[in-house]
Design goal:
Blueprint: H1 2-17, E1 26-30, E2 39-46, H2 53-67, H3 73-76, E3 80-85, H4 124-134, E4 140-145, E5 152-153, E6 157-161, H5 166-177, E7 221-223, E8 226-231, H6 247-273, E9 277-278, E10 287-290, E11 297-302, E12 310-317, E13 322-329, E14 333-337, E15 347-353, E16 357-364
Helix pairs in contact: 2-5
The structure holds zinc ion.
């Protein structure tokens, strides 16, 4: 009973706080369980007018069908939900460049950063606002753009066009944003770094993918353009669209998905054991972490606390061990270094505890 009142209170608080946000029809394309226990993919349309929203649903379903036919997502399907939010645009399609925007809802344009094929939303605050008001429990966000011109981009929001290779674009970009994987083609010195599928270590006895060496084409392949760095395969989806993920990339995506499930389980456990009124995970955007995955630091934005409220931030690893504790002031953004977290895995739970409420959010640490 007490729990019921708490949920009611939380729902009213949620409704009041975000009543300014616009809501749109939202439905599941794939439902495997409560969003608090699954990895939630949200697909947002851009450049679909009201009369084209039924086409959006069909396009999204086609992408999702291909997505879950591919390894490792085919065997992990029951751990995912897929949600669509029907956001109409005034104008169909995408802008040809940020200099020539059109009146689509999220401002998606080609020629981002001067590269023709880089298709990305320019109005990212609108993406954040739609997510917050319609489905704040998102884990993976896709922006699906209604144009058949080839293009897409990774980063916080995986973006892809409806070119015939669109499902592969989406899968490749999710490999970056969700799987924290590197490109296996040479993308330039700026993108080199230690990742699950990229390393400077060429020693077969110690290389990070040694468990997969000589299976399914996995080896130690130097980049022709920079032979000090190595990739695990010659034709992985992270190199050429339309190929399967190599075993190394499949393993990484599987590990991330299992870790996320474990993080949810730990969060629920922490919530149950908490002395304060913990919010349901649906409300976890009362605190925001960016960038997430983080590398050397992350910004922690606390929206649910009073200006002068003392807030204690606890960071737990997925086994529930306290790794870091920090005092901050409520209703502001703090930059937090990840130095203390390194060496304790890739998935953490950040719990902010104020005078009367506490909120928990996942943090992923990229290598
Ligand atoms: Zn790979």
């Amino acid at each position: 009973m007490k729990k019921k009142f708490l949920l009611l209170f939380a729902s009213i608080f949620f409704a009041i706080t975000y009543s300014y946000g616009q809501t749109f029809p939202t439905s599941y394309l794939l439902y495997n369980g409560s969003p608090t226990t699954k990895v939630n993919i949200v697909i947002l349309p851009d450049g679909y007018t009201t009369s084209q929203l039924s086409k959006f649903v069909t396009d999204a379903q086609n992408v999702v069908n291909v997505f879950f036919s591919r390894a490792p997502f085919n065997t992990l399907k029951s751990r995912f939900n897929v949600v669509i939010v029907k956001v109409p645009s005034n104008v169909s399609g995408a802008g040809s460049s940020p200099s020539y925007p059109i009146d689509n809802y999220f401002g998606s344009c080609f020629y981002t950063g001067g590269i023709q094929r880089l298709l990305a939303p320019t109005k990212t605050s609108k993406v954040a606002s739609v997510l917050r008001s319609n489905f704040p429990s998102y884990d993976i966000v896709c922006v699906q753009v209604n144009t058949t011109t080839y293009g897409g981009s990774g980063g916080t929001y995986a973006t892809y066009s409806m070119h015939s290779q669109a499902p592969d674009l989406a899968i490749h970009e999710i490999g970056h944003s969700y799987g924290v994987l590197a490109d296996e083609y040479y993308a330039g010195a700026y993108y080199l770094g230690e990742k699950a599928n990229q390393t400077k270590n060429s020693n077969p006895a110690t290389i990070k993918w040694k468990a997969f060496l000589n299976q399914g084409g996995v080896g130690i392949y130097p980049f022709a353009e920079n032979p000090a760095w190595f990739r695990p395969h010659q034709s992985c989806e992270m190199r050429y669209l339309g190929y399967p993920f190599c075993l190394v990339c499949q393993n990484q995506i599987t590990q991330v998905t299992i870790s996320q499930s474990a993080a949810y389980a730990t969060a629920k456990n922490l919530k149950t054991n908490s002395q304060v009124n913990a919010a349901p995970m649906e409300l976890c955007n009362f605190i925001r972490i960016s960038p997430n995955p983080a590398v050397d630091y992350f910004n922690l934005e606390l929206n649910a606390f009073k200006n002068d409220e003392q807030v204690t931030v606890y960071i737990y690893d997925i086994q529930g061990r306290l790794i870091m504790k920090k005092q901050v002031c409520g209703a502001r953004t703090d930059e937090i270094s990840t130095t203390q977290l390194k060496g304790n895995g890739n998935v953490f739970l950040v719990k902010a505890v104020g005078a009367t409420n506490s909120y928990t959010q996942k943090l992923i640490l990229a290598e």
